[in-house]
Write a structure and sequence with these properties.
By secondary structure, this protein is of the alpha+beta class. Helices cover about 40% and strands about 10% of the residues. The chain has a two-stranded parallel sheet with strand order 1-2. α3 packs across α4. It starts with 5 loop residues before the first strand and ends in an 8-residue tail after the last helix.
Length: about 100
Amino acid sequence: MNPRLVYARGTDRAREAPTPRRGGYDGVSFWARGGIADRLSPPGGPYVQQRPAFGDFIGGMCIAGGVAAALFNRERTGEGIELDVSLLAPRCGCSPPTSRLR
């Protein structure tokens, strides 16, 4: 492989997850597993509908930022890097797990 290559991968929960080859979907990985549906739904009521590409947009922005940082690193060091961004990880940075976003 070319040592200057910058390779980006977007996954469900990252390669180290118990099921790394399973497909990842915004509604499952970000909205449901990440707890967004629970945080935005009324207590004891039905879950609110998922917003289109809600987590995909945030995950895509994380990949874009990672690629920009990797290109900067390559310019300084001459070395490429492999990025792995999951749909679940950016959710963890969106808000503290104990917060209620109502």
